[in-house]
Amino acid sequence: MASTIVVQGLHKAYGEVKAVDGVSFEVEAGEFFGILGPNGAGKTTTLEIVEGLRKADAGEVRLLGQAPWPRNAALLPRIGVQQQASSFFERLTAREQIRTFASLYGVGSKKADDMLELVGLADKAEVRAEKLSGGQMQRLSIACALVHDPELVFLDEPTAALDPQARRNLWDLLRAINTQGRTIVLTTHYMDEAEILCDRVAIMDHGRILQSGPPAELVRGLDSATRITIETGAIAVDEARRLFQGAEVDDDGVSLTLVTRTPAPVLASLAERNALRGLSVRGATLEDVFLNLTGREYRA
């Protein structure tokens, strides 16, 4: 099966800043693909080049078998784009917004109204866009990107600034979209989001892809210790340090944490002593992989 997206040797610079520096990747049909990275990593620039919104300095992009640049009108009905910032026509209701977008693709009003139902906005159809909540606006933005039934959907940080409930609801919607056979490319700052939604991810920094693959595979490849947490007092700190000499032991007055690379004997020993109150066991996550690759320094 031919890849839906093929990117080879992509470069884009702004003066001395290399926003994209030799990026290559492929996305298969029906795949949910994530591009992860800190602020300024080059995620959005990469996505805009692939979408045909920006010209690359060098490299090649094939989108559904065609070049997206110069602006390829034949591709527009086949792709849907939801950008970081939602922009809607002033003073139009949600229904008017989606019908306007639909009309640009020759799609009828019924299909537009059905799309509002799909994203859970049927009860907000007569509400003006500027009166919608942040999560509702994101849903409307995605509905506008999907109203013409595209084969490929680009989502640039679709859950940014949403509250946890709105994020979870949007995840359900994105899963449903992907299940219908659409290929989805997502950029996000949220590692839990990528770990749950994406079949594969590419981790970017300084304009380059540092590592890519299925989230679970990347996590398994990280040599990381296991954190075992129990209630303070379940076992004395001095006893824990004596019993588990290869482990780091820390007690903050609420929880006692053991960090070890051999969790099985530690858990067995705690169970023998009936010291499992408040037990929590945490292995490596995609966030650990991300921080290991990109560093922990703060970036505005």
UniProtKB/TrEMBL annotation:
GO terms for molecular function: ATP binding; ATP hydrolysis activity. Keywords: Antibiotic resistance, ATP-binding, Cell membrane, Membrane, Nucleotide-binding, Translocase, Transport. It is a peripheral membrane protein. Residues 5-231 form the ABC transporter domain. Its main location: membrane. This is ABC transporter ATP-binding protein. InterPro entries: AAA+_ATPase (IPR003593), ABC_transporter-like_ATP-bd (IPR003439), ABC_transporter-like_CS (IPR017871), ABC_transporter_ATP-binding (IPR050763), P-loop_NTPase (IPR027417). One of its GO terms (cellular component) is plasma membrane. It comes from the Bacteria.
